[in-house]
């Protein structure tokens, strides 16, 4: 799946379409919190959109 928006825009990742909690948080040094994670979720349109950046201690 290709990510849309945020610091990982255009990155392709493997996701499990059957996961009951499909949100993903990927380690990203390019976001608001270096060493934190960028959070993406599936949109109604079927693409994965950036939601927000999380600091390292948030997870």
TrEMBL record:
Superkingdom in the source lineage: Bacteria
Keywords recorded for this protein, A-Z: Plasmid
Protein name: Uncharacterized protein
């Amino acid at each position: 799946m290709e990510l849309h928006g945020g610091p990982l825009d255009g990155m392709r990742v493997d996701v499990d379409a059957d996961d009951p909690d499909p949100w993903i948080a990927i380690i990203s040094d390019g976001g608001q919190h270096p060493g934190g994670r960028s959070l993406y979720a599936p949109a109604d349109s079927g693409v994965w959109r950036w939601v927000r950046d999380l600091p390292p201690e948030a997870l």
